[in-house]
């Protein structure tokens, strides 16, 4: 087994946004370029997306579209395994087995369930509650040791570790305990300046958004709530727009970032101009992604072929793990059925 194996997933519940990019996808791309890169698998987790009301055609279309977006962000299927979760049915099989291992009390503490149940009052399904159990299966099916995710997934990963420990105690040492890999911007707030930026909350800037839309959205984005008048001094440390300047201005022009911080504090720079400048940087840096996304969207057959290549690579690992698991828990494995 390799020293480290990476697994992460993204739901096909809409267009990926700046939070997904800065919190997760960017790390996936950086990781694949590292000279000593670990073996990495990235799944478009369509079974997870069933926890919300979603039309079958929409789910299939968003899955393909997410593939286009991830490739547009620079994920290279030659270097990593990119696949669709439902193409490897062992995810669901291990999910059931883990639901007989996980403790109800642990699941009842999950804050994402509480948030999502609040958001979807008319569809609080059992899958929404057991979501972290399927997620533990996603990760442990590949015996992954590292999981690059945003901060919202840290609690779920604690549960994955607990499931691994409980399984190992009951059935013998089988799974490693996966650790989160957090990026610098592990929890980007939405344009409302408070809630986490989320596909399901409608407070996003999507990666493929048109330049005019990006400008219009940033124009009305919430900044420092204490800065009511133009001449009030600003507090960059609490401003979501400054966080974004840190990602889009800072890496290319650290001096400009320092000047923005200074001029915000002294009120020499107003929020309107600050946001306009940010919009220019975001538009500049998202343009190549938007263009690549459009090019991939025009090649749906190639997207399907790439997912099939990914399926084969993922399935080989998943099948080996499941044979081991089936033998450990006392159900009949494929080898015995033949
Ligand atoms: P949904 O609202 O459907 O749950 P989402 O925007 O939360 O969508 P997911 O597919 O659930 O996106 O998550 C994909 C990855 O993006 C995860 O690693 C998650 O931690 C990360 N992520 C999501 N939102 C943010 C955010 N605002 N800041 C940083 N990382 C994020
Ligand atoms: Mg989410």
Description:
It is globular and about 75 Å long. The protein has helices at residues 18-33, 46-49, 56-72, 90-99, 104-108, 111-119, 126-140, 154-171, 211-219, 240-248, 254-265, 271-297, 300-329, 334-337, and strands at 5-10, 39-44, 81-84, 146-148, 179-181. The mean pLDDT is 96. It has a 3-stranded parallel beta sheet with strand order 1-2-3. The protein has a two-stranded parallel ribbon with strand order 4-5. The chain folds into 2 domains: 5-188 and 300-337, HUPs (Rossmann fold, 3-Layer(aba) Sandwich), CATH 3.40.50.620; 211-295, Tyrosyl-Transfer RNA Synthetase (Orthogonal Bundle). It is mainly α and 338 residues long. 55% of the residues lie in helices and 7% in strands. The protein has 14 helices and 5 strands. Adenosine-5'-triphosphate is lined by residues 10-11, 13, 19-20, 23-24, 149-150, 152-153, 186-188, 196-200.
Give a summary of the structure in a few sentences.
The chain is mainly α and 338 residues long. It contains 14 helices and 5 strands. The chain is globular.
State the order of secondary-structure elements, H for helix, E for strand.
EHEHHEHHHHEHEHHHHHH
Extract low-pLDDT stretches: none
Number of strands: 5
pLDDT average, as an integer?
Answer: 96
What is the 3D shape? globular
Query: N-to-C terminal Cα separation, in Å?
Result: 27 Å
Helix/strand/pairing category:
mainly alpha
- What small molecules does the structure contain? adenosine-5'-triphosphate, magnesium ion
């Amino acid at each position: 087994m390799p020293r480290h194996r990476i697994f992460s997933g993204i739901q096909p519940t809409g267009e990926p946004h700046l939070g997904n990019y800065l919190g997760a996808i960017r790390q996936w791309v950086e990781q694949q370029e590292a000279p000593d890169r670990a073996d990495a698998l990235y799944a478009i987790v369509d079974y997870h997306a069933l926890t919300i009301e979603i039309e079958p055609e929409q789910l299939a279309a968003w899955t393909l579209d997410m593939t286009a977006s991830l490739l547009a962000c620079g994920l290279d299927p030659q270097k990593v395994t990119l696949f669709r979760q439902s193409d490897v049915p062992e995810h669901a099989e291990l999910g059931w087995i883990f639901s007989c291992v996980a403790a109800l009390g642990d699941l009842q503490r999950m804050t994402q369930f509480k948030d999502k149940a609040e958001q979807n009052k008319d569809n609080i399904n059992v899958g929404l509650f057991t979501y972290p159990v399927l997620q533990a299966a996603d990760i442990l099916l590949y015996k992954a040791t590292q999981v690059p995710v945003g901060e919202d997934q840290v609690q779920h990963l604690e549960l994955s570790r607990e499931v691994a420990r409980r399984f190992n105690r009951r059935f013998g040492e089988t799974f490693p305990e996966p650790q989160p890999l957090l990026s610098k911007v592990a929890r980007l707030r939405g344009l409302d300046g408070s809630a986490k930026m989320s596909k399901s909350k409608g407070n996003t800037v999507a990666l493929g958004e048109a330049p005019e839309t990006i400008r219009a959205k940033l124009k009305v984005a919430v900044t420092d709530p204490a800065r009511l008048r133009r001449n009030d001094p600003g507090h960059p440390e609490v401003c979501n727009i400054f966080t974004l300047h840190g990602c889009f201005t800072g890496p290319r022009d650290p001096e400009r970032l320092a000047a923005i911080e200074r001029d915000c504090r002294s009120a020499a720079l107003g929020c309107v101009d600050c946001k306009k400048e940010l919009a220019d940087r975001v538009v500049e840096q998202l343009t190549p992604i938007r263009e690549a996304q459009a090019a991939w969207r025009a090649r749906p057959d190639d997207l399907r072929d790439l997912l099939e290549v990914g399926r084969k690579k993922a399935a080989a690992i998943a099948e080996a793990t499941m044979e081991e698991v089936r033998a450990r828990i006392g159900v009949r494995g494929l080898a015995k059925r033949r």
